[in-house]
Automatic annotation (TrEMBL):
Belongs to the WD repeat SWD2 family. One of its GO terms (biological process) is negative regulation of DNA-templated transcription, elongation. GO terms for cellular component: Set1C/COMPASS complex. Keywords: Nucleus, Repeat, Transcription, Transcription regulation, Transcription termination, WD repeat. It is found in: Nucleus. GO terms for molecular function: chromatin binding. Residues 185-226 form the Anaphase-promoting complex subunit 4-like WD40 domain. This is Anaphase-promoting complex subunit 4-like WD40 domain-containing protein. Pfam families: ANAPC4_WD40 (PF12894), WD40 (PF00400).
Amino acid sequence: MKLTDNVLRSFRVAKKIQTINCFDFSSNGETIISSSDDDSLVLYDCQEGKPKRTLYSKKYGVDLIRYTHAANTVVYSFNKIDDTIRYLSLHDNKYIRYFPGHNKRVTALSMSPVDDTFISGSLDKTMGPAVSARCGLMHLQGKPVCSFDPEGLIFAAGVNSEMVKLYDLRSFDKGPFATFKLQYDRTCEWTGLKFSNDGKLILVSTNGGALRLLDAFKGAVMHSFGGYNNSKAVTLEASFTPDSVYYDC
């Protein structure tokens, strides 16, 4: 669903008041939820183009946020007291479950496309999946970024801004089944990974002046998209079009 002008206008107004940390569409495309540095979670109606409800997480703060497959529940990370991920009911603003394990700020949060499994990564160099409880955390060699493939069976981890590791969700504790090492770029850090909808490509986002497009099966760099003036090291956010032919940034 394309963002309406009213929704975009609402985001611009909100941005003048506080920094929006993250936002996500519900699976039915009817609503957007955003998290901001004023500890608010704002629910937007995509049809009306207006904010419809605001919740607050004053004690813990709110950073990364993702809808589950239900339009009235989310998982999100904190930026104040601790680094536990909370599962929240938007209906009554109550926590359903807690997912402890990380000891430093959560830097990656990805929801499975097929169920309510999610994976998270942290500055403490740990990463792992969770469903009804934390399934286990892997200790990696550096800060991870992560993402599920379109079928929800494989997830990718970008480590130390130079390696992509592919894991089978059913046996992730046995280690990656494929590892691709890329040329290290000292001028930037990786900030995100995204699979194309056909599962053939991986888009690597950075806080530098370029993005990389990888072959998901071979790990080869197919394209580097540069030319961005990013002297302030702002995270470049990018995604694929539904047909996996184009990307936007």
